[in-house]
Specification:
single chain, alpha+beta, 4-stranded antiparallel beta sheet, 4 strands, binds zinc ion
């Protein structure tokens, strides 16, 4: 905890529980992460015509992918920094709206937090995996083409199909990782402000998980995640966690800390 919003609220005379809802990552951020991931796939589609009749090309392209991956990882960290700045400013704005207090000089940037770095490392692993995935798919197509003596035009079509599949996979990864990283940032931002509970906010979009719908409006502790994690953690989960601000005295704060 870096500051205590509950104690600041008490000092300001607030006595009732207040929900602080915030807008986390947007479609624009999801598209931003897609743009980070796609060069890894594009790298293979650019060289597509070299593969026909040359089976060692998969090896060369896979190795050349290392440079593309390094660039993608650097771009990923820049994207994390931008998302952090966006979500922090949303937090500051929503706290101001809900309480009238300005926490701009207290709310931290969370992108260097070890928990967040661990979440981003998972995205790094997925980026590397895209390059490996392309190699496996191309090798399979080329081996099959040799065995069945397929004409070049057919091989081109088969390779193009594999590129399409991996592109779709990259889009899903971008969507899911944006949610997970944004959710982690939201958690860290709330915990830094001394918020220990949140209220589950269901998105009510298509294909909801029934047990997530049932959690709508229920309170959870940041220290006690439900079985499948906090909102935004399960695959494709679009639920959110609204901070539950419960004003308390300095003394109560000390008691809570020592528990
Ligand atoms: Zn959900």
């Amino acid at each position: 905890m870096r500051y205590s919003l509950p104690e600041m609220a008490w000092a300001e005379g607030m006595r009732s529980d207040t929900l602080i809802k915030l807008r986390t990552a947007t479609r624009e951020h999801e598209r931003g992460l897609q743009r980070v991931l796609m060069p890894v796939v594009d790298h293979w589609s650019r060289r597509q015509s070299f593969f026909i009749g040359d089976s060692s090309e998969t090896e060369r392209t896979h190795e050349a992918g290392a440079g593309v991956i390094a660039a993608a990882i650097a771009a990923l960290w820049r994207w994390v920094g931008l998302l952090d700045r966006f979500q922090r400013s949303q937090w500051v704005r929503q706290v101001k709206r809900a309480t009238g207090m300005n926490v701009d000089n207290m709310a931290p940037f969370v992108s260097s937090d070890p928990d967040l770095r661990a979440a981003v490392q998972w995205s790094v692993a997925l980026i590397r995996d895209l390059n490996d995935d392309m190699r496996r798919r191309f090798e399979t197509v080329l081996a099959d083409a040799t065995a069945r003596r397929l004409p070049p035009a057919q091989i081109e079509r088969d390779l193009a199909r594999q590129i399409k599949i991996t592109r779709r996979r990259a889009r899903l990864i971008a969507l899911d990782q944006t949610r997970k990283i944004a959710a982690k940032m939201n958690e860290l931002q709330q915990v830094a402000a001394g918020i220990d509970q949140y209220v589950w906010q269901h998105s009510f979009r298509q294909n909801p998980r029934k047990h997530h719908v049932r959690r709508q409006g229920l309170r959870f502790y940041w220290s006690k995640p439900p079985r499948d994690g906090h909102p935004g953690h399960a695959i494709n989960c679009r639920c959110d966690a609204a901070a539950l601000l419960r004003p308390r005295t300095l003394r109560e704060g000390y008691l809570n800390e020592s528990l």
